[in-house]
Structures
1.
Amino acid sequence: MSDEAIITWGQYQSGELLESWPRRENGELEEPAYLCTRSCNDLSDQLTVNMLKAYGIPSLCMERAEGSLGRVVLGISGYGVEIFVPANLLGDAKALIDDSGSEAAAPDPETEIFN
């Protein structure tokens, strides 16, 4: 068995994702490309997905490890969510998440005040 992730088109999307996903000139679906991993505890996964959708970039989310069980039991995946976008829109998607400030900057130890 391969360690490579198998990406499937989930039925929970009711066909919306499949309809919005871009196609190549030959009619085949564009390949999904990994964009980022987001936490579910603070809804950063949903914020990222909704921002991408607002800019016309469809996204596919996959729970990591046993995250789908956590989503059923707890309502969130404790392992986070991997977000994929069409390969031809990856550059635009990266620019959006970089500009959005959603990536937390590391604190500067010189200016950080510790109590």
2.
Amino acid sequence: MFEQAEFGKVVFNRKMYTHDIYVHPSGRVEPRRKELSKLVHHTSHKVVAAEIEYLLQEDPDLIIIGTGYNGALHLTAQARDYLKDKGVLYHECTTPKAIQEYNSCCNCAILVHVTC
């Protein structure tokens, strides 16, 4: 469960993270694989389909994309198409709203962008 969030950090299960993370339905946390986006788009503010594969590892019913505090992070069209093809529901919202949704959700995964 997320206990705290502010620009530049989140606290999940009593551990502070100052970098972007994936959280799986089991609560397993991984650092976000920003390099997958940077290779293609030269920015980490786009989420590509390869990143979505990490979020699908535990077969979530819902994927939540925390787009940052100012909404700077976005799914690419390719990532949206990939989610549609897989039949997975997803929501994109600012990080504060995303972590609230994750905390009230069962069997969901989240990508948390901790800054802009």
3.
Amino acid sequence: MRTKSNKELWWITRVLSGLIIAFSLFMFIGETFFGEKPGEPMSNNAILQLSIGGIGLIGLGLAWKWELTGGIIALVAFIVLAIINPITLQFPLLYIYPVIAILFIVLWAKSRETT
């Protein structure tokens, strides 16, 4: 059963994660097909980082159904991405990924308390 605060958090997490997923897909398509050098081969490091970012986005999508599982996947993916490429931490806008993942974990914990 959702309380009012849980319902608000439920909507906030889903709207933010939906926006992040849509924006990321939009950027991926734009950079892949309409970037400066479309069709140029990517380095192995770039492929690894892109794959980890994709896993994080899949985690955010899974969190719509399974808050804890998806939140943990997205959070771990961001941590691994930050370890592989520490420059990621220089862009404060990218902190929204782990914040949303943590919000999903908090939502799971709050929903467990109310049931």
4.
Amino acid sequence: MREGSLEAPTRFPLDWQNPWFWDEKALEKEMERVFEICHGCRRCFNLCDSFPRLFDLVDNGATGEVDGVAKEKYADVEEACTLCDMCFMTKCPYVPPHEWAVDFPHLMLRHRAVQARKHGIDFVQRQLADTDRSGRLGTFAASLINWATDERNQPMRRTLEKVTGLHHGARLPRQAGETFELRAEREGAPLNEAAPAFGKRKAVLYATCFVNFHSTDIGAATRAVLAKNGVETEVVHPACCGMPKLELGDLAAVADAARTVSAALLPWVDKGYDVVALTPSCALMLKFEWPLILPKDPAIERLAQATFDLSEYIVDIAKTHGLAEGLQPVEGGISLHLACHARAQNMGAKGAEMLRLIPKTRVAVIERCSGHGGLWGARTENFEVAVKVGKPAAQAALKNDTGHVASECPLAAEHLMQVMEMAAGEQQPEQKPRPFRADHPIEILARAYGLMETPS
């Protein structure tokens, strides 16, 4: 038996349509097996809070071993998992193809799915996970929603906390008053016919819930950069990728989302378009999670093969055709947080590669979790843990002392900025970090091209 593995990790499909998957006794037995391996290894102690919780349960148990941990306590470990995949991708030496075949995130997902089927999903959590409905409705009352959800509006936020379970101090996404789809129709994107890639690439941008309903500037920056490089774009958002529902263990809903979105995107693939997902979590779903949830669906596999993460796409254009001229240095340098779901795509640090295309610009990389984990980090019971997990990344960004902070994950970017403000305040009361906002790397690239104004 090998002690560990240096081979690339591989993943088995989620066998959620097999009755065995839902057997609680079989699940408990598998969790005990994996927890035994984790207890004997402990390499993941400094990742998410799942591992400290597990090790504390073992160490404080009657036997000092996993058999001394009550089975009902297994849920405490699962509840701290954000499905970031970092243990699987970067730490664990026992992932497949090793014979022990440890896949901790998908085991936690299985536990979550079994509990969701057994007890049902909380009504409020189910509504919060319906990001398409809330996003579209929110465009009609964006100003009111942004006022009500601002963390500085404590009376309203404490009331919302009682209703939604979202911590009154957690920074929430701003609501856009117009979808990215509509903005793209209104603004247009004239192509640069002198660009090396002109006439050679065209892309359909999968808008994603976050960009479509919250941060349309990311989408506008993407279209501007691609147009500068001669790449024709179309914008579509047929439905959410299902990541918020995956976090709840609702695998059937994720499968439905995969079928809906793939049916809308594949006709574009047939017309020769590349599919570009504008956020890493959604790219991860299209490229990796959907094929594991629907492994025998040829449409899902074909879409996965045609999909690019946004930073990956820009880098591919640069390497294959070359970028258009005109990039100018970014004053003050950039601290780039590598989003967990970008790293989980196993494509390399494409966000850093993309920003390093900007001449004479320092790019300092932060390879620590922001702690947010999607909706997970905003919940009342998790927010303080999310701040604790994100503090090393925030301190690294402060130490870098750059003029800009960025993350490919917009939620991680905002959370990281908030934790930076907290950490700076701890060091010097009323002290604010040098960057006053967090960007997506594509926004910085667009400004380096002179395509977008620098926010004041």
